[in-house]
Design goal:
By secondary structure, the chain is of the alpha/beta class. It contains 21 helices and eleven strands. The protein has four domains: 3-74 and 305-345, no CATH class; 86-292, von Willebrand factor, type A domain (Rossmann fold); 350-470, Tetratricopeptide repeat domain (Serine Threonine Protein Phosphatase 5, Tetratricopeptide repeat); 486-534. The chain has a six-stranded mixed β-sheet, sandwiched between helices. Strands 1-2-11 form a three-stranded antiparallel β-sheet. The chain has a two-stranded antiparallel ribbon with strand order 8-9.
Length: 539
């Protein structure tokens, strides 16, 4: 389907062509009249030459006007080769990171340096892990730096389901995430922490040694100062309401644990970025520049490519032929061609929406792509671009239906990208909405399975599919009873109203009692864990 940037110019093209034809006919008749005034022979020659000049100039004017209207049609797929590093950012979001011994806070500075690092390492495969009392994957390995920036901006201690700081758990989960990625490139774990941990140092050092054995480079970015400070508590408006206290009502003091940080770096044979360094992200970037990267192909598709050059090329050919057969008659058309096509040639091959996406204006790009879909322009590519832009700004209400629509495309490449992004969206929804987490994981697993059918060798799709499997809790065994035997079915002692024998009724009753005891045991265990958690540090 052909679209035009300036439809009004297209509507005016026939008028312009007729005007040029009229001028050419008037010029020809004037030339013939002046030739006849000299002699009949010269007039006869003038009538015989240039008979098709007016038509040629009219067609040229029509083609140039069409080019100025900005015709667009077709699609183009561009594959860009880059070299990617496999990296995981692990950010401590425990309450001790709210200490304001650095500006604006330890967590605020970690967010700032993480954003800069993601921006500087654009094109590398980066995952994001956050941890406090528990560790969880906020984003799998991805090259979508825009989505990572949004996730980093939203980091806060309230995201953690358990307080405290379990550093060993975070190191192990980051190791698993890195080992699941491609093994060609070097694997790097960048850890943002103040070194305050509530698990034992032996557990932390064991996790660090496992990183070293698996060939993972550990880079620790230290945050905070060495002078003990309180942990401020602020309301949603940022007003200070008090300071963190322990269970006994004592003020909690926190400081950077250099002994823990040094021991972890030594066990993993990694690198420590000092807290006093002004440009921590720059130090990490310089450090990883020497690491091995793996070639990676990134495919981008553009819909409705500018085709203004086609009518311009035809117009040039016509003018050249006219110049060859009748040089003087083509001067006006040639001058018009040299002046008029400047606007057409200067047209960008990118649409406004694509340009907004390239400038990282994802919200504006999403609105423009949505306008394309509403006007039924761009086809399935517009739906994919809308869903991807909405995913980048966290607008799931628009991202999910748009990506679902694009996933129905008949184009295998476009359908694969839509399925991949849709699975990524569902994984994020599963992390946020714990009540419906299993539903989202099942749907994400189905989408990635469909994507792998289209591209079985894609490592990112394989890993994300593995994430959906690992995040699914094992199904418990069925609690039903075995089917009754023939003798039980015909037992004369059965209840005539229910059709159950006495043995069957006893089995059901025993099963119900067992389930009740199991439920009571779970409640007791949960209460015991809650009492233990109340005595546990939550900063």
């Amino acid at each position: 389907m052909i679209s035009f940037d300036a439809p009004l110019v297209l509507y005016a093209a026939p008028v312009v062509a007729l005007f040029v034809v009229g001028l050419a006919l008037w010029a020809r008749s004037s030339r013939v009249r002046h030739a006849m005034a000299w002699s009949d022979d010269i007039g006869a020659v003038a009538r015989q030459t240039g008979r098709w000049g007016a038509v040629a100039l009219g067609v040229t004017a029509l083609l140039v006007s069409t080019a100025l209207a900005g015709p667009r049609f077709g699609r183009r797929v561009v594959t860009t080769e880059t070299k990617a590093l496999t990296m995981v950012l692990a950010v401590d979001i425990s309450r001790s990171m709210l200490a304001e011994d650095v500006r604006p806070s330890r967590l605020g500075r970690a967010q700032r340096e993480a954003r800069r690092l993601v921006q500087d390492l654009r094109g590398d495969r980066i995952g994001l892990i956050v941890y406090a009392g528990r560790s969880f994957i906020l984003s799998p390995l991805t090259v979508d730096d825009g989505a990572l920036q949004l996730l980093i901006d939203g980091l806060a201690p309230d995201m953690a389901s358990a307080g405290g700081t379990e550093l060993a758990v975070a190191l192990d989960q980051a190791r698993q995430l890195l080992l699941a990625g491609p093994g060609v490139a070097d694997r790097v774990l960048v850890l943002f922490t103040d070194g305050e941990a509530h698990d034992s140092l032996s557990q932390i050092l064991s996790a660090a040694e496992r990183l070293r054995r698996d060939g993972i480079h550990l880079v620790v970015i230290a945050e905070g100062g060495v002078v003990p400070v309180g942990i401020p508590l602020r309301d949603p408006d940022g007003v200070l309401t008090g300071y963190q206290e322990d269970m006994d009502g004592n003020l909690v003091q926190t400081w950077r644990r250099n002994d823990v940080l040094s021991a972890v770096v030594a066990a993993a044979r990694g690198a420590l970025v000092p807290a006093g360094l002004a440009d921590q992200a720059g130090a990490v970037r310089d450090l990883v520049d020497s690491f091995k990267r793996v070639p990676q192909a990134t495919t981008t598709a553009a819909q409705d490519i500018s085709r203004a050059w086609i009518p311009l090329l035809i117009a040039v050919v016509i003018l050249l032929l006219q110049t060859y057969t009748r040089r003087t008659a083509a001067l006006a058309g040639l001058a018009f061609l040299l002046v008029a096509p400047r606007t057409a040639v200067g047209q960008s091959t990118l649409s406004d929406a694509d340009q907004a996406w390239r400038d990282s204006l994802f919200a504006e790009a999403a609105d423009m792509y949505e306008a394309q879909t509403m006007s039924q322009r761009g086809g399935d590519t517009a739906w994919l671009n809308l869903g991807t832009a909405a995913l980048a700004i966290g607008d799931t209400a628009r991202a999910r239906p748009a990506l679902s629509r694009a996933a129905e495309s008949l184009d295998p490449e476009l359908r694969f990208r839509a399925l991949f992004n849709l699975g990524l969206l569902l994984l994020r929804l599963a992390e946020v909405d714990e009540a419906n987490s299993q539903v989202y994981l099942d749907e994400a697993r189905r989408r990635y399975r469909e994507a792998l059918l289209l591209r079985p060798g894609d490592e990112d799709a394989k890993w994300n599919h593995e994430l959906t499997v690992r995040s699914t809790p094992p199904q418990s065994g069925g609690g039903g009873q075995p089917p009754p035997t023939g003798s039980e079915q015909s037992d004369p002692r059965g209840d005539p109203q229910t059709g159950l024998s006495r043995e069957q009724a006893e089995q059901i009753l025993n099963s119900m009692l067992a389930e009740e005891r199991e439920t009571l045991d779970k409640v007791n265990r949960r209460r015991a864990q809650s009492r233990q958690a109340m005595r546990r540090k939550n900063w």
